[in-house]
Specification:
Bound molecules: flavin-adenine dinucleotide
Largest sheet: 4 strands, mixed
Number of helices: 13
Distance between the termini: 26 Å
CATH class of the largest domain: Mainly Alpha
Strand content: 5-15%
Shape: globular
C-alpha cells in the first residue's frame, strides 16, 4: 500500500486549493477569449509568481541552493493537482521550470549553480524554456543515431575565445519562447558526429542580443500556454554559460527524467478531472426515467475511466520513485512509459467524457471537449508516443 506522509498530504492539499483558487478562474478567462485578443502569460504571470512562492518551481532543488530539497514524488503530487484544473499551466510553467532548475542543480558547475539558481534564494521567480527542436529538421530526429550531419539540429555554436556565437532557428513549438526569463538552448558544436553526440547546451538570458521570436503558435488546446519560434542571430554567450561539456546536451537532458514524469502527472490530473466531470454528469442526467449512470453502457465507461486514472497515477508514482532510487531505469523506461500511458489515459478518458455528456460533450459550456483537445497535445510534446516507445526498445 502506498501511504503519503502528513507533509505530502499537506502539500497536495495546498496544491489543490491553489489550483481551485488561482488557476480555475484564470483559465476560464483565457478559454473565453479569442487567440489574438489576449496574451495568456499576462494573466498567468501573477499566479506563476504565487506558485513559485509556494515552492512549485523549486521543489526539486537542494536546500543549499534555495530549493525545498524534496523528491519527484512531491513533484507529481503537486502536478496532478494543478493538472486537474488545467493541464497547460502546470505543464508549461511550473513543471518545465521546476525540472530545468533541477537540471542546473544536477548538471551545472558549482559556480553556475550559485549564479543560475540565485533567484530561488532571493524569492525572484524566473520562467525557463528549453529550445531544442527545429522546423522540419529536428523533431523526432533530435537524437537520431545516424552519423549524417544533415540530420537533426542545425543551429550551430562556434567558440571564439571565451564566448560562443550561436546562429540558428528553433521550432514554433518551443514552450515559453518569447516570455521566458532564460533559455536552455541546444546547438551543434560538432557536425562530424551523430546529432546526439554533437549538441551542447547553453544558458541564454532572454535579454541577450540576437534573440528574437515569432508570433504565438495557435494550437487546438493548451490555451493558457505560449509557444513560438526562436531565431538566433549571432547570439553571443559566455563560455561560462555552457552547461556541461561540449557534446553533452543530449545526456544532460536524458539525465532529467523528471521532465516527462512531471508532465505525465499533469495528464493524470486532466484524466481525473474528465472522469469526475463525467461521473457528476452521469449521476444527474436522467434518460428513460433514470440517471444515465444506471445504464450499464454508461456505468462501464465510468468504471473503466476510474481504473485508467488509478493505473496511470500508480505508474507515475512508480516512475517518480525510480527517479529517486534508480535513475537509469527511470530515464530509459519508466519516464517514457509513464508519459505515454498517462497521455493515452487522458485521451481516452476525455473521449469517454465527451461521449457520456452526449450533445453537451461538444459544447463550450462543459469542459469535456477542452479536455480532449488538451489531451491530444500531450501526444507529441516532449517526443511523440511512437518515438518514446521506440526509444524504450533497447532497454526492455
Ligand atoms: C505542445 C508541444 C510542446 C513542445 N515543446 C517543445 C519545447 O519546449 N522545446 C522544443 O525544443 N520542442 C518542443 N516541442 C517539439 C516536439 O519535441 C516535437 O514536436 C516532437 O518531438 C515531434 O517532432 P515533429 O513535430 O517534428 O514531428 P515529426 O518528427 O515530423 O514526426 C511526425 C510523425 O512521424 C513519426 N516519426 C518520426 N520519426 C520516426 C521514427 N524514427 N520512427 C517512427 N516514427 C517516427 C512521429 O512519431 C510522428 O507521428 C513541442 C511540441 C509540442 C506539440
Amino acid at each position: 500500500m502506498i501511504t503519503l506522509t502528513s507533509e505530502q498530504e499537506m502539500l497536495r492539499r495546498t496544491a489543490r486549493e491553489f489550483a481551485e483558487r488561482e488557476i480555475v478562474p484564470v483559465v476560464a478567462q483565457i478559454e473565453a477569449a479569442p487567440h489574438d485578443a489576449i496574451v495568456p502569460w499576462d494573466l498567468c504571470q501573477p499566479l506563476f509568481t504565487k506558485g513559485a512562492e509556494l515552492g512549485f518551481t523549486s521543489l526539486l532543488v537542494p536546500e543549499a541552493y534555495g530549493g525545498l530539497g524534496l523528491s519527484c514524488t512531491e513533484l507529481v503530487l503537486v502536478m496532478e493537482e494543478l493538472g486537474a484544473a488545467d493541464v497547460s499551466i502546470p505543464a508549461n510553467y511550473f513543471n518545465l521550470t521546476a525540472t530545468l532548475n533541477l537540471l542546473v542543480a544536477r548538471a551545472a558547475t558549482d559556480e553556475q549553480k550559485q549564479r543560475l539558481l540565485a533567484h530561488l534564494g532571493e524569492g525572484r521567480p524566473m520562467l525557463f524554456s528549453g529550445a531544442l527542436s527545429e522546423p522540419n529538421i529536428a523533431g523526432s530526429d533530435l537524437f537520431c543515431p545516424t552519423p549524417d550531419p544533415s540530420i537533426g539540429v542545425q543551429s550551430a555554436a562556434h567558440r571564439q575565445g571565451n564566448e560562443y556565437i550561436i546562429t540558428g532557428h528553433k521550432s514554433a513549438f518551443v514552450t515559453n519562447a518569447g516570455i521566458a526569463d532564460a533559455y536552455f538552448v541546444m546547438a551543434r558544436t560538432d557536425f562530424d558526429v551523430p546529432v546526439g553526440q554533437g549538441m551542447t547546451m547553453f544558458y541564454v538570458p532572454a535579454e541577450t542580443p540576437g534573440l528574437s521570436f515569432g508570433a504565438r503558435t495557435e494550437m487546438i488546446g493548451w490555451k493558457a500556454a505560449h509557444h513560438t519560434e526562436i531565431y538566433l542571430d549571432e547570439v553571443c554567450v559566455p563560455a561560462a554559460n555552457r552547461i556541461g561539456e561540449e557534446g553533452q546536451a543530449g545526456q544532460i537532458f536524458a539525465g532529467v527524467p523528471e521532465v516527462a514524469i512531471g508532465l505525465a502527472a499533469c495528464y493524470v490530473g486532466l484524466a481525473r478531472a474528465a472522469y469526475e466531470l463525467a461521473l457528476d454528469y452521469a449521476r444527474q442526467r436522467v434518460s428513460w426515467g433514470e440517471p444515465i449512470i444506471q445504464h450499464q453502457a454508461v456505468a462501464l465507461k465510468l468504471a473503466d475511466m476510474m481504473v485508467d486514472v488509478q493505473s496511470a497515477r500508480l505508474m507515475v508514482w512508480d516512475a517518480a520513485h525510480a527517479a529517486e532510487h534508480d535513475p537509469f531505469t527511470a530515464a530509459t523506461l519508466k519516464s517514457p512509459a509513464a508519459k505515454t500511458f498517462a497521455v493515452d489515459v487522458a485521451i481516452r478518458t476525455a473521449q469517454k467524457a465527451v461521449e457520456i455528456l452526449g450533445g453537451y460533450g461538444i459544447t463550450k459550456e462543459y469542459q469535456a471537449g477542452k479536455f480532449l483537445n488538451d489531451a491530444w497535445i500531450g501526444y507529441s510534446c516532449d517526443f511523440t508516443r511512437d518515438v518514446l516507445r521506440l526509444g524504450m526498445v533497447d532497454f526492455l
